C-alpha cells in the first residue's frame, strides 16, 4: 500500500514526504499510537517510497514496480520486518538486524528495518539496539512501531524521531471497511472499531462480540468458561463496556440511532428496563475500573464471576 | 521450460550451489535455485542475497522458459536416479523430473519471484589471474573475524591503489588480534583508489570456486557489489558497509630485533609446545637469546613443555608470549623455507614476513604472560 492508499494520516504522511524530499531522514523513527490505526502500513509505505524505482513527484511509491511489489509481498531484500517471537523481541533478532544492516543495499535503495511491537524488546535486546539506533550504517533507516512507547527504555525512545498517529475519523474507517464488507456490516464495524480499523478488519472482534452476547444471554444458570488469553479478556471487557454505554445512551435519550450495537437493539431494550440509569452508570464505572486492572494478572475465573455477576444483577457491588 | 541433461553435469552444478542455497531460510524462495533456459543455453542461478552464483549447464534445450526449483530436493533426486534426466516445467509451477523409469513432481515457484541479480551496467572491470587472487585470499582469510560485532572485520579488505600503468591490489584480513596483508601488482588500471570489504563467506565461496577453474578472471566493481566473472560463470557478492580500520597504522615500524628462522622447524616446535596449553589460553612463551629461541608453555593442571629452535639472531634477549594458533596460521600460510620475525618488546606487535613473498606481512599481537 502506498501513501496515497492510506487514510486518515495525511498530516503524518506529508511530514514523511517532506523529509524524503529534502533528504533529511533521521536515523530512526518511532511510530506511536493505538493498535490498528495504520502505523505499520505507513512504515511499509515509507519503505516503498524510499525504494521505489518510479517515484512520483510528490514522493509517493508507484505500487507497481518490482521493488514495490516485493515489499508488498514481504520478499524485498532490503526491507526487514521484525516481530516478537514468543512475546519478546530477542537478542538474536537484534543481532540479525545488525547483520542485515552491515551489508550494502542489495538493490541500491535504502535498507529499512521495521520493528513491530517494539515495546516487546526485552531489556538486553533494547540495550543491544542502542548502538545501531545511534549510528546505523550508511543508507539505513529503522522504524520502531509501538502502541505503548512509554514502557520502552527512555534510552531507546530518545534516539528515535517520534511520530504520533491518532485514531481515524469514522468516515475514513467506514471507507476502508467498505472495501471488504457490505454496507451494513461496514457501518457496524466502523462504530465498533473506535477509529482503529486494523482491530476489526480480521473479523475476530466480530466473532468475539457474537460470543459475548450469546454468553450473556445464557449467563443465568450457565457456567461461564474463563478466558484462556489476556487478549480475549480485554475484548470481553471492551464488549461489556460498550454494551453498558449503549444501555445508558438509550436510557438517557431513547434514540436508537446513537447506539453502537445497533443490531442488538432488542436485547439492549430488554436490559435497559431492568434497572435505573444510575445503576448502569455504576456498572460501567466498575467495568472500567477492572479494565484498568487487567494488566496486573487478575485471577481470570474470579474476575469473570465478578463481572458476570455485575451484568446479571445490574447492581454494583460496593467496592 | 524443458531440458535434457546428464546426471553427472546436473549433480556437479547442484553440488556447487548447495553451500549458497542452504544457508538461510528466512525467505522460502531462497531455498530454491532458478533455471533459466533461453536460446540454446541453460543457466542455474542461486543466491542467499549476500552472494549469488550463475553457472551454465550443458543441456539439450527442448523448450525455453524459467522456473524456481527447490535446490536441495532436486539435488537429492539427482544423486539417486539413473542417467539421462529430463526437467520439464508444467502448469502452476510444477516441475516434472524424469530419469529412466523414475518420475518426480516438485512444487516450484514462478521465475519472477526470484531475486534479481544486481545490474552490471555501471561496473568498472579489472582482469586478474584467478591463481593470483586465489593465493591472496588463502593467505589472508584465516585472519578475518568471525561474527564479530565490528561488522567491517567480518570480511576481507580489497584495497586497489593505482600506480602508473598498473594497480596495486592489497588484501587485508584482521580480527583485532592479528592482521595479515598481502600485496600484488596487477596489470590493469583502476579509476582511483578503492577500498571494498568482501564478506568472509563470500571469500570462502569464491576460493572454493577458484579451485575448480583457472584462467583470467574479470573483477567488476560496483557501488554495492563485486562481480567475478570467469568464462561463463558469474559470481557476485554484496559488500559490507562501513570503513575498514586503517591497517597501515597497525603495521609496526619498530621491529629492531630481526630473527631469521627455518619455517618448518618453527612450526614443529610451536606445535609441540602448544600441546600443554591447548585447552586454555593456547599461549606459548618465546625466550629469544643469541642463536636460539627457547619455547615454553605450562598448564598448572597438566604440566610443562620446553623446546628449542636455532635462530639467526645476535643482540639483546627478549621474552614474548603469543597465541600459538595465530603464529601457526601465519606460518602455515607462508611458503618460503625461511621466515623473519621482527620484534620490539614484550608488549609491541610482532611482524612475521615470508622470505619467499615480499608482499606478504603478518602482524601478531603478543600475549601478556
Structural write-up:
The complex is a heterodimer of chains A (319) and B (369). Chain A has 319 residues and is of the alpha/beta class. Chain A has 2 domains: 3-164, P-loop containing nucleotide triphosphate hydrolases (Rossmann fold), CATH 3.40.50; 203-313. Chain A has 14 helices and 5 strands. Chain A has helices spanning 10-22, 39-51, 66-73, 91-102, 123-134, 154-157, 170-178, 183-193, 197-200, 204-217, 230-253, 265-272, 277-293, 300-313, and strands at residues 28-32, 79-82, 111-115, 140-146, 161-164. In chain A, strand 3 (111-115), helix 5 (123-134) and strand 4 form a beta-alpha-beta unit. Chain B folds into 3 domains: 2-113, Roll (DNA Polymerase III, Chain A, domain 2), CATH 3.10.150.10; 124-248, DNA Polymerase III, Chain A, domain 2, CATH 3.10.150.10; 251-364, DNA Polymerase III, Chain A, domain 2, CATH 3.10.150. Chain B has 7 helices and 25 strands. Chain B has an 8-stranded antiparallel beta sheet with strand order 6-2-3-4-17-16-15-10. An 8-stranded antiparallel beta sheet of chain B has the order 14-11-12-13-25-24-23-18. In chain B, strands 5-1-7-8-9 form a 5-stranded antiparallel beta sheet. Chain B is elongated, with a radius of gyration of 25 Å. Classes of the chains: A alpha/beta (319), B alpha+beta (369).
